[in-house]
Design goal:
The protein is an all-alpha fold. The protein is built from 15 helices and two strands. Strands 1-2 form a two-stranded antiparallel sheet. A hairpin with a 4-residue loop joins strand 1 and strand 2. Helix 4 crosses helix 14 and helix 7 packs antiparallel against helix 14. InterPro entries: Sugar_P_trans_dom, TPT_transporter.
Amino acid sequence: MLILVYRNSSRTVTLLPNQNKKLLHSSLLQTPTQHKSPFLPSFLSQFRSKPLPPQISSQTSQQRAERDQSNSNSNSIAMGRENGGGMSDGVLRKILLSYTYVAIWIFLSFSVIVYNKYILDPKMYNWPFPISLTMIHMGFCSTLAFLIIRVFRLVEPPSSPAMTRELYASSVLPIGALYSLSLWFSNSAYIYLSVSFIQMLKALMPVAVYSIGILFKKETFKTASMLNMLSISFGVAIAAYGEARFDGWGVTLQLAAVAFEATRLVLIQILLTSKGISLNPITSLYYIAPCCFAFLLVPWSFVELPRLREAASFKPDVLIFGTNSLCAFALNLAVFLLVGKTSALTMNVAGVVKDWLLIAFSWSVIRDTVTPVNLFGYGIAFLGVAYYNHVKLQALKAKEAQKKAQQADEEAGALLQDRDGDRKSDSQA
């Protein structure tokens, strides 16, 4: 009796001439084209044209995928060891850069607020002209943005869609008008209120954005969200009740600034984002700062120009106003870096840290009065703002997880198609 012995890499298969075809081992059927033995008779070639049973094929594909994944992990570990842990160094470097961007933004935002307070406060530099100061900032930023985009061409303006006159008039001008009013009123509040109390009032920004978002149908009313907004408002009300230097006109100016800024943020989503227009801080200054300057000319002519004529003997310090404007422009660059390298949510979280630092600085250096009632009320508002940022962060994580799952499904579908193609090619071979 003739016995044929076929030796595979790990197994030995014995075949009898009269043996049924089903006795052929699956390991021989899986890779018939990879083993060409001169001792293999020609009648076995008929088995090569038959496809594998679905169960065996699925099992071997899974084993193959696990083997490839194991090899990939082994290669990654080996490369990591050869490079001295380069992957860990890259992650650490990215984390350090993110914290650096956050620190730069906090420092510049802190500096601009304190600098503006120093210039406008009658007890300090005593130049109470908030419209003029805002116009200086807008003129300086417009000039630098023009040089960066048009002269040095370091930043490209948006090309799709192109910024036409109609689009500029319908989308950019309303945002510029709101931005000019927000800057005017917020700078005016520094004349009447302390830095610490202004930061407490700014905690109402999420409330204003959420309320105006519902008004423009950009936010969905939720009971939990509204209760959180009420808790923030309640905390700010307690802080206002405990304010030692409470000024009704100053509070009105700051609340108006918050309302205008919140409306501007919502209109950016409606007028710009929905139309596919993406502006970074430099291109935003390039388009918005000139129209802000133009809008502020009207109230400046009636409110501050006559007073400036009376104070003609006053000569502004070029160093002070120049460095102040440079800080304002650098703050926009920091926003560009922070949002571009991390996210807008990171800036919101960093803003909470900045507010606490400003409150501590206002109390310890400027000697503003901060009462226990102030801190208690702002503590309640702070918890509400922290919860608001937490909800936003969870929503962002869920969105990213959904996106990754969708990408994984697409990759799995493509892999299955490749495997089906391999099976067909093997069966044809």
